[in-house]
Predict the structure of SRPBCC family protein.
Amino acid sequence: MAHELGSRLRRQPAPAHIVWRSLRDPYEAGSRPWLELRDDEVPPRVVAGHAPVLLVWSSLWPHRPLDRVRFDLTAGPPGQDCALRWTLTTDGDVPSESTLGYLRHRLNYLINHRLRRSYGQ
């Protein structure tokens, strides 16, 4: 059974189908770079998805291979923004509070700062 380690809901300034594509392929040609990984991180693999409402990544952290990041998207008015919730789960051990704080902060920074800024916000 998966343990929920953290979750955050925020609006993104782009439509759901655009945000979904950005998450599916962070390095898509012609897109603004936003997924800048640290030395202890690896590019995520898409392990599940249903456009444009759900996408699941593998772990960004090789030392935590059983972690997953789930993205749930809710469309706003046609052609406008969307709501994006990231949820970090694990089928492994629950990390220490300091590690957990780092993982949550890192995801929040990547999704609610870097991704958001890539759309000009």
The mean pLDDT is 95.
